[in-house]
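Aggregate trends can hide what the representation actually does to any particular protein. In the encoding step, the backbone of a single protein was reduced to a row of integers, each denoting a local shape. The record that follows shows the chain in one-letter code together with its fold in token form.

***
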Amino acid sequence: MRDTAENPQAEGAEPATRARPAHSGHALALALRSGGVALQRRFRAGDLGSFPVVLVLATVWIIFQSLNTNFLSPRNLSNISVDIVGTGMIAVGIVFVLLLGELDLSVGSISGLAAAIFAVLNVNQGVPGWIALVAAVLAGTAAGAVQGYSCAKTRVPAFVLTLAGLLTWNGLMLAVLGTSGTVNLDENGLVAQLTTYYFTNDAVAYCLAAVCAGAVFTISYLDRRRRVAAGMPHRSMRYIGVRTGGLAVIAFVSAYLLNRFQGLPLALLIFLVVVAGLDVVLRHTRYGRQVYALGGGVEAARRASLNVTAIRTAVLAVSGTMAAIGGLFLASRITSVSQNSGSGLLLLNAIAAAVIGGTSLFGGRGTTWSAVLGMLVIQSISSGMAITDTPTAVQFVITGGVLFAAVVIDALARRSQEAHGRA
């Protein structure tokens, strides 16, 4: 199907009556103009996407760069890219739960329990690192699955049951650690290297940037072809090209800056692979569509013959798994596990990252990339405060204000969608 025959209601689509321009400059202008019209249509319907959080992130970076020119230095950006991974992994799991319109309050305790299990097995018992790591992750999966199954069967809200889980898993973590209270990890061990290893060859970062750009184009193109075949609204090739080009610029600039310090961090590579993989699961698999459907309405999902128990169990299992993985990355960052692991602001930051990134508290809207954007905002604020010697109290106030704004925007967007019959 020719681009000129595309559905004008699709994002970035061209009006069917518009003639194909001959000049490439006109084509680019047309793509940008049609994309702008599509964005205006989405905004009026309450579909804001990632625009608000990107605007907030850009504002945060501009402010802190003006206060201290070292904020956007390769060293600081590299540190931010590693610091977001631990809590970011947990936030990705939270996204799955929020898509159901639920909340998992036990992820902090599960992350601490997983880290404790690894530390005791590997350091105290001498179990090989990879076996201890698998055992720790499976423990998180099991904890999440138990909670999910219990929620589905009892129909008790997840936040209530996971609040009990918060206490239970935290107590189990203390029992696993025993009287010692703290276990120091081997600085050259498997988990420690998760956040200390860097790919010093510049080609690795540039290859990753190229792969990311190629993957975005391929997925967008295949989605467009599927929609064309089904006669559904779809994006124009011009829009896909401009969007891919913009993301490619961001990816290659990021690769350049990382290479100016120590290279591509292994932690960031793993994080991006996990986020991209789970994004494909959510948006391009039957299971992912079922998660969104269940978030849109439990009774409607039951009447559609969806296995609500299995979906809830799987979602909480994913949350527990990601919490365990995040706990291992957090332990790697400080090369130790203590009775304070998984406590403090970890739970609040993980939930805030998912919400700030654009995942709806009402369920049915959000992606795994929401957690990445949200964590970038939170960690950028934290790093900027540290560089400018700003009191921690101010950091809490600013982060809380951003979270409050995200919740308000989410509520207003929900009302707008209801007014347009889209919620």
